[in-house]
Amino acid sequence: MILRLYILLPVLAFALFLYGAIVNIGYIEENRCRMTYMFEHPQYTRLPVQGNERFPKYGLYAYSEGYITQRVQQRVFTGAPVLFVPGSGGSYKQVRSLASVALRKGIDNNWQSHLDYFSVDLNEELSGVYGGYLQDQTEFLELCIQEIARLYGSRGRSIRMFIVGHSVGGKLAQAVVAQTGTRGNIGRYVAGIVTLSAPVDKPVALLDHYHQSFYDRIEQTWRTNRSVVGKLKSFRSKLSLDGILFVTIGGGIRDIIVHDGLTSSRYADLHAMTHNIPNVWLSVDHLCAMWCLQFVLVMNRFLFSMVVPHGRNNFGFVEEKQTQLDKAIRFLSQPFAGSLDDDDADEGGHVAVEKGKELLLVQHNPEQEDWIEDLRRSFTERHRAGMDRTRIQMIRLVPDKVAYRFLRVEVINSEQSNWLSGCAAVEIYGNSRMCQKATSLANYTLPVPSSKFDRFGAIIDMHELKRNNPTWTHVLVKIPRTNKPVQFSVDIFNPDERMIHLTMPYWFDYRAHTILQDASPDDSFYRINIRGMTHTYQTIALDLTAVSCGGVKGTVVVKVRVPWANGYDRYAFHEELNQTTVYIYPPIEKPPGGDGTEEEVPIQLDVHLTPGCKYRIRYAQSLRVSIARIVQQHLVLIPAHCIALLLLAFKDQLSQTAHNDPAFVVGKLQSSLTKPGPLVMLLATSSLIAKFLTLFKSIPPVELLATPLVVSILIHLASLGLLVIATLGLWGAIAFCANFAHKIILRLIALPIPVMSSTFLSCIHKFPLAIAVLLIAIALTACGGVSLLCAAAVYFVLLSKAYEDYLENFVFHTARKIANRLFGARERSERDGKRGRHRRRPANETGDELMVINFHLPLFFLVIMLGLLNVPSVITWAKNYHYANTLQPDPSLVPALIVLVCLAVLWQLNTPRNVYGYELLAALLVIVAFVSVLYCQVHVYRLNYSIGLVFLAITVHQIIAPKRRDMEMVDVAEEKEPDGIVEQAVQESEDDKKAN
C-alpha cells in the first residue's frame, strides 16, 4: 500500500504541474487591453546601413504612413529618433502600434513636436533560446545607431536617441552601449534605454554557453562603467554609462515567458510594472506590451514629454538626465504613496510644506465659489448633472481626537490638478469662513485606477499636518464647475479601526477565512498587513463581495506594496462587479534578514471600497495560482532533476548483481524509478552537499537557489512522475507500435531518388555502425541537434526490433516446451543441448533480449533528453537554412559527437557485456546525478556534457572491463559474439531453425 502511494505521489505532482501550466496560459487574469488601430496602411522603408554586407539577413527600417512615406524615402527626418529593437522571434513590424500613435500625435499638433520611429529587422531569430547570434545582433545594432546618427548629422544635427527594446531586444540595447572597439563609444548617441518585459540581469534559461558569456560580458562592462542605483561611489566623477537613462518595465502576472522578478535591474534608474503605471493599471502578456493601447499611449506621452526644439523645425530629446528621470517618474511611476504609519512620514514625503522649499499657492475667488463645511466624518456626494458653481469642501483639522486622525478623500472628474490644499480659514466672506490663498497638497494626491473617469484620491495624516502647520484650520477640496458627473467622498477615521493583520497560512492550509463580515457603507478604506509571505509561490486570494450597494455600481481598488521590492507596487481594480478576487503574491523572494532582531515588515494592501456599498472580505491560500507561479518560475529546473533521477535509477539497475555472481543481470527501469531510495537520497543530501562544497574555494561554486523545501519536493516528484509516465508510454510504444513505426520509418526513408533510397536502405541493413557514421556526418554538415533527434529515432527502431525478437523467442521456447510435454520429443531436446554448448545459456532462456532492452532503455531516455535540450539549435538551423547549410556556431555539436561515437560502439558490441566494474560505473552515475542538481539547474546547457560523460564512461567500461566467468558455460571453443543487439537476436533465430 505504501509503495502504491509512493507511485501515486509523483503522478499527482506531475498532474499539478500540467494544471499549473494550463492556468498560466489563460486562467489567471483576463486581458483587458484595448487594441491599437492604424488610420492608414503602415509603410516600412528599408534604409541602407554601412557595413550591412556582413549581416545580409538583418535590416533597418523607418516607419511611416500615407504622405509621410515620401519624406522618409527622401531621408528627411526632423523629429526625435526612437529605435525599436524586437525580442526573441520578434518582427521589426511590431513597432507599428508605438509608431502609429506617435505619428497621429505629431499630425494632430501640426508637427510642433514629433518622433521618428526606426525598427531593426533581426530575421526573427530565436535569440532567447539560442545565444549564438547575440553578438552579431549587437554589432548590427551598433551599425544601425551609427547610421541613424549619420542621417541626422547630414543635416548638421547632433542627435541622441532613445532605444526601446522588447524582451531580448532590451538586453541587446544594454549590450550595444557597452560595446568597446575601434568605432568609439556608441553610448554618446544614446540618451536613454527603455526595456519592455526583458530579462535584464538574469536570462530566462541558460540553454547554451553563448548566453552565459553574453550576460557575463555585459555585467562586467556595466559594473565598471555604471553606478549601481542606491549605492554611492567613492569618487565624484560620473562613470561613462551614468549619463544614459535606464528604465525597465515588466508586464506582471500575465507575462508567463519573462516573469516579473527578471524584469528589474540593479543598474536601472527606474523600474515600473504596467499594473502600476498611471492610466495603464493592467498586467500585460509578453507580446501584448507591443499593442496594448493603454500602455502605448503612456509610453508615447513619456517620450513626447522629453522632446525639445533643436533648431528650426527640428526636434530632439532633452539632454539633462535629471529632467528625463523626472518625466519618467511622472508618467511611469507613482510619485507619492500615502501611509498610515508614523515612521514612514519622512520617507514618503508626507510633510508637504517643509521649510526652505518653494510652496505652490492656490488662489481662491469667494464670489464665484461655495464654501461648505460639513461636520460629518464620512459622507459621499454625487452630482450627476455636474455643478454650476465651484465648490470648496472644508474639512476641519482636529488635532486632539484619535477618531479624526486620518483623512481619505476621493474625487471623480475633477478638472483641476491642485484640487487639494490646506490653509488657515480665518477670513470671513458672507456667512462662511474662507481663505484667499491656500497651500497646495498635490504631493499627497495620486491617480486611482479607473477605465471610465478621471479619479484621484489622497490619504492624509491630519495630526501630522497640523503639527507641521500650526496655523492651519482646514483641508480644502476644490471642485470646479463642470457639466460632467462629479462625485467626491470624505472618510475620516482612526487608523487602528481600519487596520487588519493577517498571517500567511501554512502550505497545506487552504481554508477560507472571513476577516470582515459587514463593513459599514461609509467605510471606504482598509489596510491589510500580511506577515509571513516571503516566497514567490505563496499566494493569497482576497475575495471582496459587495453585499449591498444602494443603487450604485461597486468599484474595488487594491494596491499591493511589497516593502523589499522597489518598483513592484501593484494596483488591481475591478469595476461594476459584485464579487472581486485579487491575488496577492510577492514578485521576488524576500532577501535573508540579518540577526533576526529586526521586526518583520509586512506586505501592505490598501483596499479602496466604493462609498455607499457594504462589503464582506474573505481570504484563503490559492492553490491554483501558487502552482501556476511555481511552474512559471521553476519549470527550467525540471531537466536537471529528470536526468539526476534517471541516472540514480540506472545506477539501481546496474546494482542488481553481487560482485561474486558469475552472470551480470540488469534490473527493470520502471522498478528502479518507483523505489523511494533515489528520491529520498537526492532530497536529503543535495542541500547538505551544496553547503559542504561552499567551504572549499578550489571547487567551483554551486548554484545556491533560494528554493523552499516544499517547492523542491514538488519539483522532484513532478520530475519523477514525468519519468514514470514516459517510461510507461515508451513501453507501450515499443510493445504495440514498434512494427507500425518501423514500417513508417522505412517508407519515409524510401525517397523518390533511387540512388539515395538504395544507399540509405543498404546502410540500414548494415546496422548499426553504418547508420552511426551517417549520423556523425549529419552532425558535422548540418547541426548536432538534428543528428541527436535522428539518433533517437534510430534507437527506437533498434529497441523495437529487439522487443520483436524477444517476443519471437518467448513464443518459440514456450511452444517447444509444450511440444516436449505433449509428444516427448527427446531427440530435439538432445540437439538443443548440444547447440547450447556453443553459446552462453542464461538461467532464463528468454531473459537475454529483455536484459538488453532494460540496459538500453535509460540510455535511450538520455538521448531523447539530449535531443530535446538542443531543439533550439535545430529550430535556428532550420530557420537559417537558406543562409547557411551548417549551423555556426553550434552548441550541440560537441555533445552530439561524443554521444554518437559512443552509440556507434554500444550498438556494435553485444551490450551489456558480462564484465566486472559495474560497481564503479554505478558510483560514477551517482556523482553525475548530484552534479546535475548542484551545477545544472540554472546552467541547463551543462547537462549536455553530463550526459556525454555518462555515455563516454559506459562505452569505455564496456570495452576495457574484464569478463566474468560463467560456471554454467562450457567453453568447447571460443564463442563468437554477435555484432550487435539486432544481430544477436538474428543469430539465435538462425540457430533455432538449424536445430529444428
List keywords for this structure.
996 residues; Rossmann fold; Jelly Rolls; 4 domains; eight-stranded mixed β-sheet; 24 helices; 32 strands; 18% strand
Structure description:
With 996 residues, the chain is an alpha+beta fold. The protein folds into four domains: 282 residues, Alpha/Beta hydrolase fold, catalytic domain (Rossmann fold), CATH 3.40.50; 135 residues, Sandwich (Jelly Rolls); 111 residues, Jelly Rolls, CATH 2.60.120; 297 residues, no CATH class. It has 24 helices and 32 strands. The protein has an eight-stranded mixed β-sheet with strand order 1-2-4-3-5-6-7-8. It has a six-stranded mixed β-sheet with strand order 11-19-16-22-14-12, with no helix packed on it. Strands 13-23-15-21-20 form a five-stranded antiparallel β-sheet. The chain is globular, with a radius of gyration of 36 Å. About 7% of the residues have low confidence.
Shape call: globular
Q: Roughly how many Å apart are the termini?
A: 48 Å
Mean residue pLDDT: 82
Task: Classify the secondary structure makeup into a structural class.
Answer: alpha+beta
Low-confidence parts lasting 5 or more residues at pLDDT below 50?
A: 232-237, 336-358, 753-758, 834-847, 967-986
Strand order of the largest sheet: 1-2-4-3-5-6-7-8
Radius of gyration: 36 Å
DSSP helix fraction: 25-40%
Number of strands: 32
Q: What portion of the residues fall into strands of 2 or more residues? A: 15-25%
The helix tally amounts to 24
Query: Could you describe the largest sheet, including whether it forms a barrel?
Result: 8 strands, mixed
Count structural domains.
4
